[in-house]
Write a structure and sequence with these properties.
The chain is mainly α. The protein has one domain. The chain contains three helices and no strands. Keywords: Membrane, Transmembrane, Transmembrane helix. This is YtpI-like protein. InterPro entries: YtpI.
């Protein structure tokens, strides 16, 4: 059951990543482009974390746990850095939109 939950989380985070990457390429405003890039980075970080945890469920060996630790650390670093970027750039998105109406 836990494996199915992580598979759903993996699929949803990958879909969110593709959604925000598509939005990033379609928009012309530079701050909004960076904002969508940061949101895609958050989704990518969640994807890597969920994939790593799912690895430890599927392969409960020492190698599986080592891969889990590596993936969770990398995913957390990506998600945290992207969250900080998204929070910072999110303050300027509305202002940029108003200036470029």
């Amino acid at each position: 059951m836990l494996n199915i939950i992580f598979i759903i989380l993996i699929v949803l985070s990958f879909v969110a990543y593709l959604f925000y990457k598509t939005k990033q390429f379609r928009v012309n405003l530079p701050i909004r482009k960076k904002w969508y890039k940061a949101k895609a980075g958050i989704a990518l970080g969640i994807f890597v974390i969920a994939f790593g945890i799912n690895t430890s469920i599927v392969y409960p060996t020492a190698v599986g746990y080592a891969i889990t630790v590596i993936f969770v650390i990398i995913g957390f670093m990506e998600a945290y850095a992207s969250f900080k970027r998204a929070s910072h750039e999110g303050k300027f998105v509305k202002e940029e939109y108003e200036l470029n109406k």
